[in-house]
Fold this protein.
Amino acid sequence: MPVTPSPLRYPGGKTGYASLLKKVIDANDLRGCDYAEPFAGGAGAAITLLLDNYVDSIYLNDFDPSIYCFWKAILSKTSEFIKKVKETEITIDEWKRQREIYRKQNSQRYLSLGFATFYLNRCNRAGIIGANPSSTVSPLSSSFFRCRSLKILTTLAFTIIF
């Protein structure tokens, strides 16, 4: 399984296609083009192309309102999103609270829905949002959750067009 630059864990994600897409871009002399991802999900391939300088910009969208809200939140309310990552506890009670926010699917509150989606993705088994929490949902897992998440989020916030 390839290492993904995405802040989301996405089973069956497209990161593995990045090497193929690089070959297609080079074969067609398209370096520096724009890349659109209509069903972004974790956007692993798109982010890889951007960070490896194969494309100049990426455009993300997703049919799933919660995934759309996640990307919209990290790209348009970056500082608020990062604050939530820093301050939100990794506990079962918090997991239940975030699950309720996710279940309501209120896309008008895209920061809350986007963060709930992220929280569940990072805390659930294999990143499956509808799954149960992983056994690592505890205050002890907070530092890993925050460290990796903040590094990825701050890198992406200034390089992706939404």
User: Anything to note?
Assistant: Helices lie at 18-27, 44-51, 65-76, 78-87, 92-104, 110-123, 142-157. The longest strand covers residues 55-60.
